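Slide 14.
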Amino acid sequence: MEGSHARAEGAEDRPRVEPAGELLEADAAPKRGRSWGRIALVALGIGLLVFLVYEVGTQDLVQRFLALGWRAPLILWPFCLIAFVDGWAWTYTLPSTGPGRLSIPSLTMIRLAGESVNNLTPTAYLGGEPVKAMLLVGRGITAASSTVSVVVAKTALTVGQIVFTLLGIMLTLERFDIVHDGDVLFVALCLLGVAFVALLVRLQRRNLFTRLAGFAQRLGFHGPRIERFAATAPSIDHELRGYYGARAGDFAKSCFLHFIGWLLGTVEVKVFGDLLMYPISWRDAFIIESISQPLALGAALAPGAIGFREAGGVAIFGLLGLDESAGLALWLLRRVREAAFSAFGLLYLMVATRRRAAA
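Slide 15: predicted structure.
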């Protein structure tokens, strides 16, 4: 009895340790909820895609695809230009001295690897950014410089996208005679865009990563990764402030090149329309590509945005008075192109990961 009593007292003195099963179940519950949510979004997207195919008619779609014939590989060349220009834009966010000057083809492949993860995961197009940083570290760039480069490049990409989308909104309003002189409206929209970008840059210059690390720790996140991130955060913030303070010209060049990349998306719409035997005017191609950007962001949490992008494309074609079957065919061609470049990116990621493990 005394021995039993002694053990009971010792048990009361020691802090209670939760059984492993309870911890796993508590952690797995929200994950199961997220998994079911993703499954529901995928099912909804597939159902939406099936409905669209049924509505426009499979025969019309098949005829359009068969008309491609030997020209089918031509669907790849516009995005080759886009990928090259975006890789070129990335060079202006890397360290200007030291081992950080990678070639444009290398950066293009690293970017494709990250974007393939973005396209395949429901992470609002952010899941591939750590992959890009990891691959840069594998090329000899410090973790802080890699993170700064990825953050600045994403910001420059967003700036180019905002300008491109605002231009598309102005053209859309003019096309439907909602406004006759879009200059004033465009200037007003640009001022809003400038205010947003200024706020974004200001946030990044005010110890963003140190605050994120502290916030994560206050929420109870701990472990080696969080500790490494917290240790690196001050260096990241220091380099980020230094970049915006000393390399404003490079940031402007990166923004401009990313804007050119978005403009080249208009070329892809135009080329795809011609390949599908459904010529689209340059103005409508610009509107289609620019207005599709906010729609794509709206579907960013759905895995692959399956069905949602296609529905948005069909809606835009219908809004412009264009053939909706051509719109669905064009977005399905984009799926094929995206799958091809995602395969290139994933193959590069696999090879780079193996090399890093073997080193």
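Speaker note: Residues 39-205+247-358 form one domain.
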